[in-house]
Amino acid sequence: MSKMMFCFLLLIPPLAFADKPVVAVDVGHGVRDGGAISARGRSEFAFNRDFSERLAGQLEAQRIAVREINFDGHIDSLVARPEAASGSDFFVSVHHDSVSEAYLQAWVWEGRSLTYTDVKKGYGIFVSAANPFPETSLLCASAVGAMLRRAGFEPTPWHGRKHQAADAVNGVWYYDNLVVLYRTTLPALLFEAGVIKHRDEELLLRDPVRQRRMADALASGIAACLQVTGKLAPE
Ligand SMILES: [Zn+2]
Fold first, then answer.
1. pLDDT, averaged across the chain
2. Domain annotation for the chain: domains and CATH numbers
3. Angle of CA points 110, 118, 195, to nearest 5°
4. Which of these, 72, 168, 176, 220, is most buried using a 10 Å CB contact count?
5. Once rounded to an integer, what is the mean pLDDT over residues 116-131?
6. Whether 115 contacts 139, CB under 8 Å
7. Does residue 198 contact residue 117 with C-beta atoms inside 8 Å?
């Protein structure tokens, strides 16, 4: 190769996507195990899929590439999810929350007998101390919680009953034995967008404009965290 040619090659910027960090977005549950059932009878999986699609769009707007995990709902195994994410820079599992049986009340919605709660609402973020990167996981979870609060979303204090606080102000809790958080080679968090058994919050969680605002807060928090850890170049 001539010297001139070599210099020319050095001037070519690397392909844009080669520089982008990759965040794996996992749609919680699936077609066969739909997860919780909302107050109006919709599966958690349907909520998770809608929100994950919004989140993917907002991450891409933050110059982050997305690896879609279980967007078609056909990955049943929990272990397979972080495995499918291998090689990414961060892992986010998207869920929606319920409440234990003792706090459910019965009602009939459009002819169906269903259950709801009035006692619990708000988002929650989980990290595992057994994850191989607990500091990065918590750093990103706190950044996400701070962005969500800044955007006007409120964490549920409910998880304090069962879980040790990691950063309670920002709605971050420890849940060490979650398979998707510890059987992994990536820093990771699990996001519960809200409580679909809560009748009012369920409607808010179905609002596409609000979904987008929430996804934007989540993506901004992840972007801020990836900048601090050197995975994403500052703008
Ligand atoms: Zn779930």
1. 93
2. 21-228 (3.40.630.40)
3. 80
4. 220
5. 97
6. no
7. yes
> Tens of pLDDT along 182-207?
999 999 999 999 999 999 999 999 99
Q: Give distance in angstroms: CA of 193 to centre of ligand 1.
A: 10
The pTM of this model reads 0.91
Nearest to 153 by CA among 189, 96, 201, 116: 201
Q: How many A from CA of 28 to the centre of ligand 1?
A: 6
What is the Å distance from ligand 1's center to 55 Cα? Answer: 17
User: How far away, in angstroms, is 82 Cα from ligand 1 center?
Assistant: 16
Q: DSSP letters of 214-235?
A: HHHHHHHHHHHHHHHTTSS---
Location of structure tokens 């309670």: 168
Distance of CA 93 from the midpoint of ligand 1 (Å): 9
State whether residue 125 is helix, strand or coil: strand
